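Quick one, T. Sequence first:
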Amino acid sequence: MQNSARRAVVHGTASALILLSLGGVAAAQKRPTLKSLELCNGADRTSPDVQIDGCTSLIDSGKQTPQTLVIAYNNRGNAYMAKGEYDRAVQDYDESIKLNANYARAFNNRGVAYQKKGAYDLAINDFDEAIRLNPNYANAFANRAATYQNKGEYERAARDYDETIRLNPTMQAAWNGRCWSRAIVGELQAALTDCNEALRLEPSAAANLDSRGLIYLKLGEWALAIADYDSALRLDPQLATSLYGRGLARLKKGDTSEGSADIAAAEKLEANIVADFVRYGVQ
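Structure tokens:
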């Protein structure tokens, strides 16, 4: 479970918690409330606590419109997410949804919080609802795809990445996510095309190089796999999948010492890495 969660962070999509502007509400407020509005909407990025304080001030004032409260609860949930306080984030998204059951962003964001908690079915239910409310919500499709990846449902993940890419062709994480899903189910040439596009969009992303390394590993292209894993590890030295994949490729090339060292380092970082690679179709 731990390694699956890491794969989602790396190869899925970043959990996009888009802040919605509070708009013209500020004009009617006194200056302290204006400051709270600015802070709640993320004007000061020094710490999530600053945003939490701003949103809390609005929520506790008793003077805000329901729509302002919808956004304030959502934004405070985002700030709790940034702190890794997923239960408190869920509580705030709950409040936002109670006030506006048609607010797709709160459903998407609560889905991300559930995903982080490992409650994948609850997450998918929320992404389903976000997509029902907004069928063009690329981030919700991407987040649902990442959750299906976590569940090992790679073909369903690939279909959601299809929709993400249709709606947002420049989202490199979606190209990489579909590359990863296709690589695991054995659609290696299609996966390679996806990874190359992800790398064109973001050449310095360790995740993109790691995904392509898996493809080359499954194709038996040991030198190319090692080259991609080397590049990924220069960017992220703690990326267990790249360490393990490079170790396997080195062993296949006859480099027993370096290969065994890579595999040992990967197993130290991720206890389930061997089982994960078996699930990916590599032994």
